[in-house]
Amino acid sequence: MPPARKRPRAYDPARTRAAVLAQFGNVRAAVRTLTPEQLALPTRLGDRTVRELVVHVGTVLDAVDRLLGEPEPARQDGRLPDWPLTVEPEADPARPPAVAPPDLDAHLEEAERRFTAHLDARPGGRLLPTGAGALPLADYVVTRAVGLVVHTDDLAAAVPGLDIPYDRQALAAATRLLADALAVKAPGGSTEVRIPPYAVVQCIEGPRHTRGTPPNVVEADPLTWIRLATGRLTWVDALAGAQVSASGERADLGSLLPLPG
Q1: Distance between CA atoms of residues 238 and 225, nearest Å
Q2: What is the chain's mean pLDDT, rounded?
Q3: I need a labelling partner for 76 at 20 to 30 A (CA). Which of 52, 135, 174, 213 fits?
Q4: Do the strands 199-203 and 191-195 form a parallel or antiparallel pair, or are they unpaired?
Q5: What residue spans define the domains of the chain?
């Protein structure tokens, strides 16, 4: 059993930036294949159509532009694992969707240009005023990987047959950050949550396991975990569909998921 995590997980800024841009490129390539009929399809995000979801994907990167336009906080008072426990304004399903531009690829290309220009021009330690408190730019870029992976899955769910690859590093960052957020939300060492091959965390108060097979174990694949953590899949449905395994009296995560709630 891995030891309890005593310090925040570290992410390499260069690898995270590459992962975000790779996943954004995967989405852009898929969007270029969509027909007008597919763009008009509904999504699982309230009243948003696929076209409106694509526009929202651009805001995942544009959030950096918006936050850099605000005054820099005097000091860091946020932690990266707290970010998944908050709901930023752009992620609120009740928020009216942005007006879709006529050229979606040009819209995404411009969002990517602004994002890369900001990362080139500003140090990773520059503080941003996020919903989870002031975070360094390098940490906030990790959250952009989460947003892109989640919305990649949203697009694939909305358009039958649409195959969008997942950048391995982006998927790993999303899995790990959401797993670490669970450990923050329900601290403890009685339950081990495994999301192979990317993350293992301990959570929930109770007797701490020290050796051998843990008595309380939850295991899921990365995309199932991400759907559970973000409310795309309920705990009950995941169990019923054998998408997650849970053993032990403290292995019920139903009351803890989704994370922002």
Answers
A1: 10
A2: 92
A3: 174
A4: antiparallel
A5: 13-170, 172-247
Take residue 172 and report the two structure tokens written for it. Answer: 């790993």
Task: Round to whole Å and give the CA distance between 66 and 5.
Answer: 33
Whole-Å CA distances, 49 to 29, 43, 54, 240, 260? 18, 6, 9, 29, 23
Q: How many CB atoms lie within 10 A of CB 108?
A: 22
H/E stretch holding 230: helix 222-230
φ and ψ at residue 63, rounded to 5 degrees: -60, -30
Are 190 and 209 a contacting pair, CB within 8 Å? yes
Question: How far is it, in rounded angstroms, from Cα 27 to Cα 216?
Answer: 37
Superfamily covering domain 13-170: dinb family like domain (1.20.120.450)
Indicate if the pLDDT at residue 2 is higher than 50.
no
Which amino acid, residue 208?
R
| pLDDT tens per residue, range 10-22 | 999 999 999 999 9
Q: Which residue has the tokens 């790990």?
A: 176
According to DSSP, residue 90 is labeled: G
Tens-digit pLDDT profile for residues 228-249: 999 999 999 999 999 999 999 9
**132 pLDDT above the threshold of 50:** yes
pLDDT tens digits, 87-129? 775 555 556 666 778 899 999 999 999 999 999 999 999 999 9
Would the pTM of this model clear 0.90, i.e. be above it? yes
Residue in the structure block whose two tokens are 């403290």: 250
Cβ 97 vs Cβ 46: under 8 Å = no
What value, to the nearest 5°, has the Cα angle with vertex 9 and ends 71 and 74?
20
